[in-house]
TrEMBL record:
It comes from the Bacteria. Its EC number is 5.1.3.2. Its cofactor is NAD(+). Pathway: Carbohydrate metabolism; galactose metabolism. The gene is galE. Residues 2-260 form the NAD-dependent epimerase/dehydratase domain. This is UDP-glucose 4-epimerase. It comes from Halobacillus kuroshimensis. Homodimer. Belongs to the NAD(P)-dependent epimerase/dehydratase family. Keywords: Carbohydrate metabolism, Galactose metabolism, Isomerase, NAD. One of its GO terms (molecular function) is UDP-glucose 4-epimerase activity. It catalyses: UDP-alpha-D-glucose = UDP-alpha-D-galactose.
Amino acid sequence: MILVTGGAGYIGSHICLELLERNHEVVVIDNLYNSHPESLLRVQELTGKTLTFVEGDLLDQDLIRKVFEDYGITAVIHLAGLKAVGESVSMPLTYYHNNITGTLMLCEVMKEFGVKQLIFSSSATVYGTPDSLPLTESASVGAANPYGRTKLMLEEILQDVYVSDEAWSISVLRYFNPIGSHSSGRIGEDPAGIPNNLMPYITKVAVGHFPDLKVFGDDYPTVDGTGVRDYIHVVDLARGHVHALEKTAGETGIETYNLGTGEGYSVLQLVQAFEKASGRKVPYEIQDRRPGDIAECFADPAKAHLKLGWQAEKTIDDMCVDSWNWRKQNPEGYTGEKNASKQEL
Ligand code: WQD
């Protein structure tokens, strides 16, 4: 039985779908702070398979223990955590407590039950401002905000856990910029409030929620002056987790992998790709740079290909088509389904 913490979220729900399609049995713990139980109902509809959902928080260690007792967990994919860069600057204690303590609670219970296979959700944000590109896993790290520092600290904590007991099998997955949705358009990114990230904001402009996109700076040393990122389709990202889980089952060790495509796209290039894919105009207005942003970031994903047999396959057009398909079908996201589906689950 695979435990997916944060499994009701944007990335988590896509991972649960891929796990079920690969005939894994899945248990989800999620506190629903930034996710919707409706996503898991739809994952079950799409796959024709069932999973177990437990509403709860990793800070409740007795709850984690009960899940391990009740469901015979054999491995953990750990996604649960706060992840808004800007918010982390204003609420560092909340981020450190939630992300660090929550992970420690989880790992202690894993140790108690002798469950030592962990797939950990990290982020390219640990690289800070890259010294050179593309980024390999051996590039220097240095997070520039509390959120990124929680990920970096957790990577170091997991390294120490492995050194203390080499029976652990730990895969640290550094995500680049996940966008897109399952091709059905039934599950997707549904951030609460005003989206921080680029693609959910673009889709909300395209569907008429916002009048235009604010482009944070066009004076970076990049192809067109706007920020360049390595956008990866969320389904490719989800499949990277399944590859890591299946490839490292029965093995020991700790390895870090970049999950990106290896290609960078600027803000304006993504807007252009989205307009082509959706047939919708996305008006935009150039504004000042966003504090903390870097100019350019994209991965060298060769190690994941070599060691996990995984590489991203979907194109930027797929990402735009699928992002638009989700938003078109769900202009208000999962809202209105939250209470109903919790009872059903
Ligand atoms: C992408 C580009 C912006 C919004 C963050 C976190 C990272 C990960 C992914 C958690 C940048 C520009 C954005 C907008 C814009 N999250 N932009 N207008 O900042 O690369 O990464 O999200 O793991 O940790 O740091 O992603 O989508 O916010 O920004 O011009 O309204 O789009 O300046 O160049 P980012 P993003």
